[in-house]
Amino acid sequence: MTFAIGEINRRTDLLPRLKLGFHVRDSSNDVPVSLKSSLILVNGQPGPRASRNRSLEAGVGGLTAKGDPIPLGSRSRGLGCADVTRSVSPVIIGDASSGLSMVLLRSLGPFHIPLVSYFASCSCLSEQQEFPMFMRTMPSDAFQVRALARMGASSKVIINFCSEAEVDIIMRAIRRRNITGIQWIASEAWATAKSLWEDFGDLLSGTLGFGIRRAEVIPGLKRYLSRLRPSNIHDSAFLTELWEEALNCRLNGSVNTHFHTVNPLDRKPCSGAEDFSDVYSAFSDVSQLRVSYNVYKAVYLVAHALQRMSDCEAGQGPFVNGTCGNPRSVEPWQ
């Protein structure tokens, strides 16, 4: 998302008088956490006040509304009260799961906040009367279910419509019980999950399924991801955790307490000579741009909507009496 926003802000043919800003919040795949994070976004959070001679700036996506684009994890440190404005996000990009998206849509309904999901695929979310503020760059399950049913109609198979984490649990149980000879039909949530195929390739051999559309390349993304250095990630809890997990060292002054394999307190200090490009990480793997491509498209969806608002001619707009929206003061319902 940050890559796409930076790319749009450098373009001269798309939103030439607008700069997009953003805030990133972790939903933790948990309803209370996701709801809290979304309410913080829509109620506004501190950001630097835009100067008068600065080009028009607006926020999108999960995202701040005013001020320069804020690097992931950065804070408005050293700013006085007069220099700070409450930045309200007129659009939220997320959530990943259908269940969390439904909770957010029902909770944020009165605020008319658009939600653009990159992974929520439940066909129920296509009900425009119930979820009028929902958009997505992920196909509805309605298409996948019909296709899966046709594939399994003439075979004795198990159609597994679960998330990657749930399939991992199932595969471990199958291995413990030494069950073999199953023909699996995979949903898009795990059909291309690299970790599952690495750990359970012998059990999943012959699996059929549908993958999310993959982008062959997003120009510049690999170089952008490989530029990570301790100096530009230290303020981000997300990237600090990634750095420490991938390179198995602890950054000086780190407050990261999350771990997957080794307790961070037991890790050796990072020397500063580590290079993220020397290790494999799913974060920097651009060979399978599927969900990442959906996020990329979601940001561009918002950008093109703002461009159309900027190009609107008085008397021919989509609102009452042909009026246009004001791109200097974007309202979520617009």
Short description:
By secondary structure, the protein is an alpha/beta fold. It is built from ten helices and twelve strands. It is globular.
Descriptive keywords:
three-stranded parallel β-sheet; 10 helices; globular; 334 residues; 12 strands
How much beta, percentage-wise? 5-15%
Low-confidence stretches: 50-84
Q: Percent range for helical residues?
A: 25-40%
* H/E element order: HEHEEEEHEEHEHEHEHHHEEH
Morphology call? globular
**Oligomeric form of this entry?**
single chain
- Mean pLDDT over the full residue set: 80
Number of helices: 10
- Pairing-aware structural class of the strands and helices? alpha/beta
* Rg (C-alpha, Å): 22 Å
Termini distance?
22 Å
Q: If strands are numbered along the chain, what order do they take across the biggest sheet?
A: 5-6-7
How many E-type strands?
Answer: 12
* Largest sheet entry: 3 strands, parallel
Fold and architecture overview:
Helix content is 33%, strand content 10%. It has 334 residues and is α/β, with parallel strands linked by helices. The strands form 5 sheets. It has a 3-stranded parallel beta sheet. Strands 8-9-10 form a 3-stranded parallel beta sheet, covered by helices on one side. It has a two-stranded parallel sheet with strand order 1-3.
